[in-house]
Amino acid sequence: MPQPAQSPAGPGPVASEKIPPLQNIAPSVFVPLQEDILKADLPRDRVERLRRILKTIDYQREGVKESLMYMFEREKKRIMMQAAEMEQTLGSPKIRPGLPPEEVEEIIRNMEAPAQPGADYNIRDMPQLDFRLPVPPDVPLRDRTVIELLYIVESGLVQLNGYKKHMADIQKYYLERLERELARVDEVGKRPEERDKGI
User: Fold this and answer.
1) Res 193: pLDDT
2) What is the CA radius of gyration of the chain?
3) How far apart (Å, rounded) are the C-alpha atoms in residues 167 and 49?
4) Where are the chain's structural domains?
């Protein structure tokens, strides 16, 4: 499987090493070649060429996915390291007091209550976070860190799903071309009357 330029299996950044913020995911599309393209044999025909393209699509899709995951993981580390440095500078935050016992009991009673008949408790369709919005400046450090981490998760999901759909469309296009080419090759050896009958 393709490896990103800096393998996630490596030791990773040391505490003093600064990780630059993730600004652009474009480098993720560069995946190492499987073989020397200058020494590879040319495809014999269109069918073999299309099969090679489809094989390359699978390889490219997995390589880009690995690179994207590595970039998002690295950005997560950067956010956590930055938050730890800021907390050392600013000091530990004030711990918020816990909920009063009566509120905790009310929450538990609500969770134990039976479901209302006909009510839709679906939470799969919750709107995604708008990760393009800046984090408000007055948010406490730990809350800011959580929001930034949620943003990177949301933007990562959007990018991964978008790329998956993009590659599925490309694969579908080449699969259809391969099917048409195989059908054309199958028709070549038939006489006109056999073609008409679909023999």
Assistant:
1) 63
2) 27
3) 18
4) 43-91+137-186
What number of other Cβ atoms are within 10 A of residue 164's Cβ? 13
How far is the C-alpha of 190 from the C-alpha of 193, rounded, in Å?
A: 8
Contact criterion met (CB below 8 Å) for 22 and 82: no
Phi, psi of 157 (to 5 degrees): -60, -45
Nearest to 60 by CA among 139, 193, 187, 170: 170
The total number of residues shown for the chain amounts to 199
pLDDT tens-digit map of 104-140: 999 999 889 888 888 887 776 666 667 667 778 888 8
**3 state DSSP class of 117:** coil
DSSP label of 41: P
Q: DSSP of 137-156, one letter per residue?
A: TTS-HHHHHHHHHHHHHHHH
User: Distance between CA 171 and CA 53 in Å, rounded?
Assistant: 9
Q: What is the DSSP string of 78-116?
A: HHHHHHHHHHHHH-PPPPPPPPPHHHHHHHHHHHHSPPP
- pTM value is 0.68
CB 31 within 8 A of CB 2: yes
Whose tokens are 């479901």? That residue is 115
